[in-house]
From TrEMBL:
Organism expressing this protein natively: Priestia koreensis
CDD domains per the UniProt record, alphabetical: SirA_YedF_YeeD
Protein name: UPF0033 domain-containing protein
Coiled coil: none
Family according to the record: Belongs to the sulfur carrier protein TusA family.
Entries under PANTHER family matching the protein: SULFUR CARRIER PROTEIN YEDF-RELATED
Limits of the UPF0033 domain: 7-31
Superkingdom classification of source: Bacteria
InterPro entries linked to this entry: TusA-like, TusA-like_sf
UniProt cross-references to Pfam families, sorted A to Z: TusA
Length: 77
């Protein structure tokens, strides 16, 4: 999946992946995709819930070795 921006949140503990994701998302236009790389296992539930509550779409999620990868499409808000 192609992303408009990639955020490296590896090694960060909760809530920092969400904080950094929110900041990066503010720099994108509606419809653009942010790719996030995280190692915090809690990020899976946190990012899914955050995306939903913010009107964004969690397009894809996968795990590659110990790295969780997420693709979130910015919503209209």
């Amino acid at each position: 999946m192609n992303a408009d921006k990639v955020l490296d949140a590896k090694g960060l503990a909760c809530p920092m992946p969400i904080v950094k994701t929110k900041k990066a998302m503010n720099e994108l236009e509606s419809g653009q995709v942010l790719e996030i790389h995280a190692t915090d296992k809690g990020a899976k539930n946190d990012l899914a819930a955050w995306a939903k509550s913010g009107g964004h779409e969690l397009v894809q999620h996968e795990e590659e070795q110990d790295v969780l990868k997420f693709w979130i499409k910015k919503g209209e808000r």
